[in-house]
Amino acid sequence: MSSKGFIKSYSIIRNNQAILNGEEFLKGAPEDDFATFIRSLYKRLEITHSPFYKMDDMCKLGLMATELILKDAAIKEKYTETEIGVVLSNSSSSLHTDTSYYETVRDKNNYFPSPAVFVYTLPNIVIGEICIRNKIKGENTFFIFEEYNPEFITDYVNNLFSSGKLKSCIAGWVEFCEGKYEVFLYLAESDQGDNTIKHTTEQIKKIYNF
Amino acid sequence: MEDLVNQLKVQIIKALKLEDVKPEDINPTAPLFGDGLGLDSIDALELIVLLEKEYGLRVENAASAKKIFLSIQSMADYIAEHKKA
């Protein structure tokens, strides 16, 4: 399939390391747990967004990866709210938080369902958090695959561009389960502008080292 | 009463994950919602769960909830009054 878009920026967060456009942005200490590392990244990005602390781990992960790719992208200057979309995917859906919620209701003698945990028991809540933070109102979808499927996501986003529904899209993979995490997000644009990376499966595999 | 207020501050910070707030930052008579701590509707539900889980007190209706959750002081007053009964 021919390219119908271009990649403006991309981020990878895994193994206590955050990468922006191929360059290391932050490396945590090997002994840091996820909570410590993601808080360090939040502080390093110099963000003031208090809802961050209340989010589940997958939302924190997706939001920080988005902050990285939008940091210098100036999308608000180029696009309207509805011209920007979000297309994400992962393999374990919201299972990590589903399990946390289950723990609050498992014991009938200690039955205190947590509303704050319950609201994160859907995978697409991460899209909502990204959209709220960045005032994005365009097309959005969350897919579940056994593993990252760059062919599908690339085609899907390029079709949104060619149909005229979007001019810009945050896309990729946000996985968090049982303490293991990996996120690869990128900002794709329909117009080339000063972008040099085509939005193709081959390029995605190359920059993600898939 | 002061001990209860301080205990509530710590419990609320933990339950609502207010990681950037310290107990001494909270004015016990300041509104919990709106201009005070800026809590939302999900936080309100968590406060109801906290009252039941930590103090065995159930909030029976929305009208009483509005009075109970005005501030940390009003929560402490409610707990003190109903725990005695």
What does it look like?
The complex is a heterodimer of chains A (210) and B (85). By secondary structure, chain A is α+β, with helices and mostly antiparallel strands. Chain A has a single domain (6-95, 121-208), classed as Peroxisomal Thiolase, Chain A, domain 1 (3-Layer(aba) Sandwich), CATH 3.40.47.10. Chain A has helices at 34-44, 57-70, 75-78, 95-105, 115-118, 125-134, 150-162, 201-208; strands at 6-14, 17-20, 23-27, 84-90, 140-144, 168-177, 180-189, 197-198. In chain A, strands 1, 2, 3, 4, 5, 6, 7 and 8 form an 8-stranded mixed sheet that branches. In chain A, a hairpin with a 2-residue loop joins β1 and β2 (17-20). The mean pLDDT of chain A is 95. Chain B has 85 residues and is mostly helical. Chain B has one domain (2-84): Non-ribosomal Peptide Synthetase Peptidyl Carrier Protein, Chain A (Orthogonal Bundle). Chain B contains 4 helices and no strands. Chain B is globular. Chains A and B meet through loops of A and α2 of B.
